[in-house]
Design goal:
Helix content is 83%, strand content 0%. It is built from 8 helices and no strands. Helix 2 packs antiparallel against helix 8. The N terminus is likely disordered.
């Protein structure tokens, strides 16, 4: 009887939270994902120039990234809809993106760049359907507008910090350092999801 009463009270407290533990974990995950990508994306064209490309290369490679991510999102969305543990797709996405960032560190040609953008497109396609699905599940009724507002606000705030820090680091130490940082963040995020108790998400 005591256990049942304690459990019920715990559930009531959980429901009164504006940001529940699942959403906190998801905001941490999305924040890490966006921060890593933002360290590089605003200064992407400068990196393209460093490996011998120009405006056309930057535009075409970014188009490849968008096309791969867009087409595969249709496929991954359907596949992830059938998964019992959709959060694992987010973990996979982080490992794929981490691999892409490691390969950016090794990139010294246009063809290698195109391959990396394909890999990052795959990572994005794995990430977004799974993330939005899980976040929607844990967003709570009349509080969901506020809870999505927190996510949307951070989607501007965190990339702003990531881009500023990334630009400063590249200016001081070159691109290789941020590729290492980006890869570490992505792999750490993937591992965090794998070891996160399943009851949280």
């Amino acid at each position: 009887m005591f256990f049942h009463h304690h459990h019920t009270r715990h559930e009531r407290v959980k429901k009164t939270l504006l940001i529940n533990p699942a959403l906190k974990a998801l905001l941490l995950i999305s924040g890490t994902f966006m921060f890593a990508f933002a360290m590089f994306s605003p200064i992407y064209a400068i990196f393209v120039e460093e490996i011998g490309g120009g405006i056309k290369t930057a535009a075409n490679s970014w188009a490849i990234f968008g096309l791969v991510a867009g087409v595969l999102t249709f496929i991954t969305g359907k596949f992830e809809n059938e998964m019992k543990e959709t959060e694992l797709a987010i973990a996979w996405s982080q490992f794929v993106c981490g691999l892409g960032y490691v390969l950016l560190y090794l990139t010294d040609s246009i063809s290698m760049l195109y391959l990396v953008m394909i890999i990052l497109g795959i990572g994005d396609a794995l990430y977004w359907p799974a993330f939005h699905s899980i976040y929607s599940i844990h967003a709570d009724g009349h509080k969901s507008t506020f809870q999505w507002g927190i996510y949307d606000g951070l989607a501007y705030f965190i990339p702003a910090i990531g881009s500023a820090l990334g630009g400063w680091l590249v200016n001081q130490y070159g691109f290789n350092l941020i590729f290492i940082v980006m890869a570490v963040l992505s792999f750490a995020c993937g591992i965090y999801i794998l070891f996160l108790p399943r009851k949280v998400l």
